[in-house]
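Project outcomes to date are best conveyed with an example. Our students and postdoctoral researchers have been running inverse folding experiments weekly, and each run begins with a structure described purely in C-alpha cells. The record below, which covers 260 residues, was selected by the lab manager from last quarter's runs and is presented without edits.
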C-alpha cells in the first residue's frame, strides 16, 4: 500500500532518465508488480530506500524531488497520511519476500477459466492490487492455478461488477485441501513447473492473452489439463465430471474442516 501520491513510482522511461544522469541511483530502484502490470506485462518501477540510506538517496536531485513530493502529499492529506510524513522516502506498508513470491490479481475477468497467478523473485515489490503468498512452495502455485480452486473462487469470492474479486480471507484461507503424500506433492510441483515453463515459451503474449479462452495456446491448455488432473486426484471422489462435482466435494470437506 503506497499512499505516496505516485511520487515513488516510476515508468520505464522515468527510470532510464534518472539512471542516465545518476547511475548510482540504481541501488534505490526496484521493479514493481501490480494487477495491471501482471496481466498486461507492463514494466514499472519504484524507489525503495531503507532508512539508513535516506541521506545518500536524497543527495540525488531527482530522488530528493520525489521524496519532497511525497512529503507535501502526505502533510496535506488525511489523518493516516499525516502520520507518515517522516517516512516520505517509503511506501506506507513494506512487505517483501525473502526469496520468491506467488501473486494473484485481486480482480480477474469472469471470462477466464483460470486465475492469472504468477511466480516472481524477491526483487519485485508487490502492490496492493495483488494478493501475495510470500516465499510459498511452488505446489501452492499449482493448487491456486487449478480448476478446482477456480470453482471455489467463482462460488465464494466477491465480485466487482461481473469480475471475480480474489481475497485471502474469502478464497484462500477457506479453501479445503486434503493432506497429501510426498509423492503426490512431487507430482503437483512438476505439473506446476510445466505450466510456468510453457508460459515462458510464449514471451510475445501477455497473461491476459494467454488466458483468453479463445486465444489460449494449445500447449498451455494441455499443461493446465495435466495440472488439473493432479490437483483433482488429491481429493476423494476423483475423477470429477464437472465443476458441480468438484464443488460438492469441496463443500463436504469444508463442512468437516469447520466442524473441528
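After processing, the design step wrote out the following sequence:
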Amino acid at each position: 500500500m503506497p499512499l505516496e501520491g505516485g511520487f515513488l513510482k516510476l515508468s520505464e522511461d522515468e527510470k532510464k532518465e534518472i539512471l542516465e544522469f545518476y547511475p548510482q541511483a540504481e541501488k534505490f530502484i526496484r521493479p514493481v508488480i501490480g494487477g495491471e502490470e501482471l496481466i498486461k506485462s507492463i514494466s514499472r518501477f519504484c524507489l525503495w530506500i531503507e532508512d539508513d540510506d535516506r541521506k545518500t538517496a536524497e543527495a540525488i536531485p531527482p530522488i530528493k524531488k520525489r521524496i519532497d513530493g511525497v512529503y507535501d502529499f502526505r502533510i496535506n492529506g488525511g489523518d493516516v497520511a499525516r502520520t507518515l510524513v517522516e517516512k516520505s522516502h517509503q511506501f506506507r506498508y513494506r512487505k517483501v519476500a525473502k526469496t520468491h513470491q506467488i501473486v494473484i490479481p485481486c480482480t480477474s475477468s469472469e471470462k477466464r477459466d483460470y486465475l492469472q497467478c504468477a511466480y516472481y523473485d524477491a526483487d519485485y515489490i508487490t502492490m496492493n492490487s495483488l494478493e501475495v503468498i510470500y516465499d510459498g512452495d511452488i505446489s501452492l502455485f499449482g493448487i491456486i492455478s487449478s480448476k478446482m480452486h477456480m470453482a471455489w473462487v467463482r462460488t465464494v469470492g466477491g465480485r466487482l461488477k461481473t469480475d471475480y474479486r480474489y481475497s485471502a480471507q474469502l478464497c484462500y484461507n477457506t479453501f479445503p485441501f486434503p493432506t497429501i503424500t510426498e509423492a503426490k506433492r512431487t507430482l503437483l510441483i512438476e505439473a506446476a513447473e510445466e505450466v510456468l515453463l510453457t508460459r515462458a515459451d510464449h514471451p510475445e503474449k501477455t497473461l491476459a492473452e494467454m488466458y483468453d479462452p479463445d486465444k489460449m495456446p494449445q500447449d498451455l491448455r494441455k499443461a493446465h489439463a495435466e495440472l488439473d488432473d493432479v490437483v483433482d486426484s488429491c481429493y476423494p471422489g476423483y475423477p470429477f465430471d464437472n465443476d458441480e462435482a468438484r464443488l460438492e466435494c469441496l463443500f463436504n470437506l469444508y463442512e468437516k474442516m469447520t466442524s473441528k
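DSSP finds twelve helices and ten strands in the chain. The beta strands are 9-11, 29-33, 44-47, 100-105, 107-108, 118-121, 125-126, 130-134, 158-160, 163-165. The training component of this project remains on track.
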